[in-house]
Amino acid sequence: MEFVKTTPNYQPYTALIELNRPKELNALNLQLMQELKEALKTLDQDESVRVIVLKGNEKAFAAGADIKQMANKSAIDMLMIDQFSTWDQIKKTRKPLIAAVSGFALGGGCELAMTCDMIVASETAKFGQPEIKIGVMPGAGGTQRLTKAIGKARTMEMVLTGKFIEASEALAYGLINKVVPVELYLSEAMKLAAEIAQMSPVAAMLAKESINRSFETHLDEGLHFERKNFYLTFASEDQKEGMQAFVEKRSPNYQGK
Ligand code: DAK
Questions:
Q1: Fewest Cβ atoms nearer than 10 Å: which of 23, 60, 121, 129?
Q2: Residue 24 counted as domain residue
Q3: Distance 232 CA to ligand 1 centre (A)
Q4: Exposure of 195 by Cβ count < 10 A (0-12 exposed, 13-18 middle, 19+ buried)?
Q5: Annotated catalytic residue: which of 107, 131, 167, 170?
């Protein structure tokens, strides 16, 4: 892989994916997205991995889809090549996915971070949907996920003016989980990953699925879905282990079965 580096066991049960197109601020071209999709699919199926962390570099998580690659495309080119269909795969990742963001997370970069389940950011992180400045609009969740995360008024302002928000604002608005000094953003993301990796991977997967369902459906349907997934956890050995460990006053040892 040229633009995506994968370290399956960066720490126990946790894989790290690094976007690696630094000269272009990790602009998301077709090849990078294809590689990212494949990396996520492989790690999602790897039993030794329970949590995945996705990072860019200090200057940029990702400055958006590759403008140079899109500039001369027609609508029909976009439709027929359907290069953006790879984006649909990202949200199919079933394991918890944490974005570790430093520097620019713009356009598709912001959308990619929002497709992850949680965001840990450095103080230097800047989030924005500046597509309006190049004559287009967000196309991978910027009008949908951002609105759900920070509300209509703030999303309208960001999307219609293209202005960026700082990490501290993103935290105050509820877009991200944590802001830390730049030298700590990866270790903090890894700490969060380690905490989640100690839980039952079966329960984590079902819980993630249920939370995401809340964005797709109305309350009754969501509660029904949640209850079925709750019942399903009782089919796991991890449920027996977790409850037995509680009774025996010891730490559980989950096997993901
Ligand atoms: N695409 C291509 N190249 C980019 C790029 C981008 N998005 N962002 C930066 N680069 C390149 C620059 O062209 C420059 O290359 P050289 O000139 O050195 O060859 C190099 O990275 C360094 O950038 P700068 O020289 O501009 O660095 P500065 O520090 O001065 O400025 C910046 C940093 C991030 C403020 C600036 O580079 C910038 O404004 N970049 C563009 C940000 C942007 O407009 N992003 C949104 C792009 S549109 C969809 C999925 C996704 C999308 C749409 C649909 N579907 C699933 C349907 C997403 C669309 C977008 O993201």
A1: 23
A2: yes
A3: 44
A4: exposed
A5: 131
* Residue 131 falls in the annotated catalytic set: yes
Say whether 103 is catalytic.
no
In a domain, 63, yes or no: yes
Angstrom CA distances, 209 to 94, 214, 226, 227, 256, stand at 7, 9, 9, 12, 16
Read off the pLDDT of residues 143-158 as tens digits, 9 standing for 90 and up.
999 999 999 999 999 9
Q: Could you tell me if residue 257 is inside a domain?
A: no
Closest atom, ligand 1, to C-alpha of 78 = 57
176-230 confidence digits (pLDDT tens) = 999 999 999 999 999 999 999 999 999 999 999 999 999 999 999 999 999 999 9
Same domain, residue pair 133 and 31: yes
Domain count, the chain: 2
Q: Residue 60 CA: which ligand 1 atom is closest?
A: 34
Q: Which of 103, 108, 141, 142 is catalytic?
A: 108
